[in-house]
Amino acid sequence: MPAVRCVDLCKTYRQGEIAVKGLDHVDLEIAEGGFVCLSAPSGGGKTTLLNAIGGLDRPDSGEVWVAGKRIDNLGKGDLARMRLRHIGFVFQAYNLIPVLTARENVEFVMQVQGVAAAERRQRALEILEEVGLAGLGDRRPARMSGGQQQRVAVARAIVSKPALVLADEPTANLDSHTSDQLMELFTELNAHHETTFVIATHDQRVMEFARRLIRMLDGRIVEDIRQEAA
Amino acid sequence: MTGSTGVMLRLAWRNLWRNYRRTLIMLAAITVGVWAMIFMTALMRGMVDDMVRGGIRALPGHVQIHHPAFRDDPSVANLISPPDESLRAALDSGDVLAWSTRVRVPAVISSERDTRGVVLLGIEPEREKDLSFVAEDIADGRFLESRDDRGLVVGRKLLERLETELGKRVVVMSQDPDNEIADRGFRIVGVFESKLGSTEESFIFAGVETVQKLLRIGDRVSEIAVLGNDYRKVDGLYEAISTAAGPGVEVLPWYEVDRYLGTMLAVMDGFVWVWIVVVFLALSFGLVNTLVMAVFERVREIGLMLALGMTPRNILSQIVAESLLLLVFGLALGNLLAWASIEPLKGGIDVSVVAEGMEMMEASSVLYPALYVGDMILANVIVLVLGFLASLSPAWRASRYEPVQAITKD
Description:
The structure holds 2 protein chains of 2 kinds. Chain A is an alpha/beta fold. In chain A, about 35% of the residues lie in helices and about 30% in strands. Chain A has a domain at about 5-95 and about 160-225: P-loop containing nucleotide triphosphate hydrolases (Rossmann fold). In chain A, helix 3 runs parallel beside helix 5 (about 145-160). The longest helix of chain A is centred in the C-terminal third of the chain and has 18 residues, at about 175-195. Chain A is globular. Chain B is an alpha+beta fold. In chain B, about 55% of the residues lie in helices and about 20% in strands. In chain B, strand 6 (about 170-175) and strand 7 form a beta hairpin. In chain B, helix 2 (about 20-55) crosses helix 12 (about 310-340). Chains A and B meet through helix 2 and helix 3 of A and helix 1, helix 11, helix 12 and helix 15 of B.
């Protein structure tokens, strides 16, 4: 069973008077444990595709399947529950809830899932250590660097062991050294936890870490390359 | 507490203090608003209590028993027998503080200079002392000493109108049941003063047996007045007395005997509601504005939480929780402030500067704030319920955000 399957996805946006094709008959399958980069110039459709896979945005037509379940026809509440159980998100910015500490941010998803306090605390501390933030659990996001904040976001995305992690330009606000560290972390988590990663990026360095590179242009997949990761 | 409830409350609490100035201002507004609701209600209640108690002391008592036709024709033609054994048992029960029989007839009083129409009341002085104002409000002379006391107690204003004085004799004239003139001379032994001039002019008091002899009515009486423990909880007493009195008589609670007072109390109950709701409406603008601002400032964050798996209902609950937390703290402080400001004033507030106006309303010139638990509960419930409803609109808007649009909002 593929982790993600998209069938003939179409999505059109309106920018003023002009209709822009975000997704133009996209067909895609991503295997479980895959490490995939979606690459496209700005407006090429990578974020639109990522949002459709994550149930954050609805396609105009076509089907989206995640972990064997069709999600494009779910209601808001069911979509939210599906995201909660099956998908971890890492966004480019505004990734953390500012009034919660790093540990509480990591615990957030587990707490909404209803995981017991002691267990989620334990798991949060372990995952923070795993992403190299041991001892920083009590810090609020405002007192952390951009790289540290992204690591907390990654920790939050994987702590509840979702089948799929979707990352939208996760390195856009990071320097090259921190970007490499983050990608190494992704690779390691992919290998150890067998979590499927789908990363939207236009950063060449990030693409080098992927085992599969999908290039998009004007809402269409124009190239699908299997490659050796860096 | 479930996981999502816990995280919602934590987020609600911390979000409140993100902009602590705005929260403190709103908290102060709620506190002052709640204080104003409770404090002003206590003052109004105090004034109404005073008026009603004064009204009840001015003869009605809490329950009265009459001949069924007495209200239409309060004359010697409509009398009842004194209480029988079963009624006496009810009247002597623990629910009754005091009771007394009275003969009440229209009469004419004449001095050597003037003549006036009055209501002649034959009373049982020992019982009447605990029931109505007249014994307490004797300003000159003495109160009646026995059922067959031959003296007469009159009001100060009437004394002035008759141009007579304490110790002088007057003639009181009425009709007996055979429509014959019944008259006799009385010596004025006491003068009472009342808040209301009309009371001083209208009523004269003599011993009940003296009046019964004058009117040739045997031991029959016009009314039996009964005083219970609380004028607000009079229905139980009314039921018990009605049952014991049996058929053939009319039993009325005080708010039927004095409809003006009864209506005034009902109007005041309504006014308390209106006052609390009006204050709340003023507060609600601030509350809704605070929540709208709080939501508007956190659109991206709300989008993030939706993306991470919070349901729209979770978001709605979180915003409502913020509002309720603010309200609960405001209510706690407002209640405390109201209690702290009313407690030292329980000895009374001197409002003698507006004494004339107060007297017109049959209220005294010292105002005693009355803090009722029921009023406090009413204010708290109204603020919580209406606050909850007011917060639904911004909370609903927040819960309807599309995560993808909210996250990318500038």
